[in-house]
Amino acid sequence: MASRTAVFVTTLLIGLAALLAPGTARAASLQQVKDFGYNPSGIKMFVYVPARVAARPAVVVGVHWCHGTAQDFYAGTQYASLADRYGFIVIYPSAVSSDGCWDVHSPAVLRHDGGGDAQGIVSMVKYVQQRYHGDPARTFVTGHSSGGMMTNVLLGSYPDVFRAGASFAGVPFGCFAGPASWNTDCAEGRIDKTAQQWGDLVRSAYPGYRGPRPRVQLWHGTEDDVLRFANFGEAIDQWTNVLGVSATPTSTEYNTPRSTWTRTRYGSRVEAIREQGQPHNLQILADEVIRFFGIGQSAGT
Fold first, then answer.
1. I need a labelling partner for 257 at 20 to 30 A (CA). Which of 175, 277, 284, 285 fits?
2. 98 is catalytic
3. Model-level pTM?
4. Over the stretch 199-248, which tens digit does the pLDDT of each residue have?
C-alpha cells in the first residue's frame, strides 16, 4: 500500500500543474456514458467529444494512474485540448477498485475477450466507433503508471482493436500476473526474462491471432522508485520481439524531446524515450504521443 500511496502523491502533481496552468476555454466538456455495452467489472466511462469532430475521427483512450480518476487524467493531461485542435475523440475510463488502480494482473485481462477491466475498456471503444463513426484504423491507447500498465495489457490482449499505444512508467505485459493486485518483484524490476519469453506472454494472450500488431511507444524515468527503470528495458525486449524487429536501435537521438532525454527507435514500430533523472511522476508530452499515433491534421482540413 505504501507503494501505491507514492503513486498517488507523485501523479497528483500532474493534475495540479495542469489545473494551475493557463489555457483556453473549451466549448465541449467531459461527459459520462452509463450504458456502453459489456462491462464485466463495472468500470466507468467518460468521453470528450470536441466541438469540431473530424470526419471518421481518430479515437484515443487515456487511462489514469492509481488513486486517480477519469477526471484527473482529463484535467492533468493535454489530450482534450489536442482533440480540440485535431478533431479526435478521447475516452477516459475510470477504475472502480478501492485504490483506483487497474486490474493488470488477473487471467481475465491477460487474454483476449477474457473479461475484466480490459474488456470493459474495449466496449467503450466499440461504443465510440459506432456512435461517433470513430475510425478503427486510428484507435489508440495511452496511460501513466497503472494506466501505462493497462496500456500494455490492452495492446497485448487486443491487438485487433488498437493500432498503437504509448505507455508512461509502465511494466511489460504480464509482468504483474498473479493472484495479488500488486507485484513487488515486478515493481522492483526483479523479473528478468528473455525477449522470446516476454514475447510469448503477449502471443499467448490471443492464440491463433495472425493480424497486425500495434506500434508501441515507451516512456520511463531513470529515477523511478515505484516501477523501477529496469522495466523499461524489459518492455523494449518484449515489444521488439512481438513486432519482429531487431533489438538493436536503428536511431538514437540525444537531448530530445527534452534536454538530457534520449529517444531510441527500433525501426518505425517501437520508440522508447528515456527521461534522464525523472522520477515516477513523469512529464507527459501529449503532443509527442499524438505525433507517434500519426494524428496531425486539424479538424476540418
1. 175
2. no
3. 0.90
4. 999 999 999 999 999 999 999 999 999 999 999 999 999 999 999 999 99
